[in-house]
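S.,

Sequence below, as promised.
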Amino acid sequence: MLRVVVCDDEQLLREALTKIIDAAADLSVVGVAANGQEAVTAVDQHAPDVVLMDIRMPVLDGIEATRRVSSRTRVLILTTYDLDSYVYAALQAGASGFLLKDAPSERLRDGIRIVAAGQAVLAPEATARMITAFRPAMPTDEDQALLRAIQGLSPRERQVGELIAAGLANDEIAERLTISRYTVKVHVSNILGKLGVPDRVHVVLAWSRLRGHV
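The prediction came back faster than expected:
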């Protein structure tokens, strides 16, 4: 049973999310929070596997709350199209991915399972917007090592990295490149190792920062 904390400042949404999650036999909402501070407290009290985190909330926003709890639990951001800048900051703070608030119920439940398993979830509909919005003019000094690592990927790994950055899942990448899903998983693992990043969310972040330079 995967333990979930739901954090959103809208009561109706908290209740709806709780019903959606509890409808699955393998998921259970163990706590709810109306702001980031309550989310931090709920993580302390319930030790959940995943926190569903809104971003714009009173008292303590979801970005700071994510920063405080991401070392102890996985955080899945729920957002809308107009929150791209906040999503980017939340991912940098340690979130494991994001979904749109209007995502189908099963996608939400699957997202929780994927994040709990140590993987990352990205909403394909918003990934391209995030990359476009946060493409810097030039890489910073801090980005140079990452840029060299990307340039050191094999041609096939570069292809896979580009498709990850575009928001494609492993099955979609396999179909696009006409290779097996296992081969995609190997390439993804190699990319994470060479870039020194923990999951595919950070591959998207790398490509978004360095787009135009890789």
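The first strand starts at residue 2 and ends at 7.

Coffee later?
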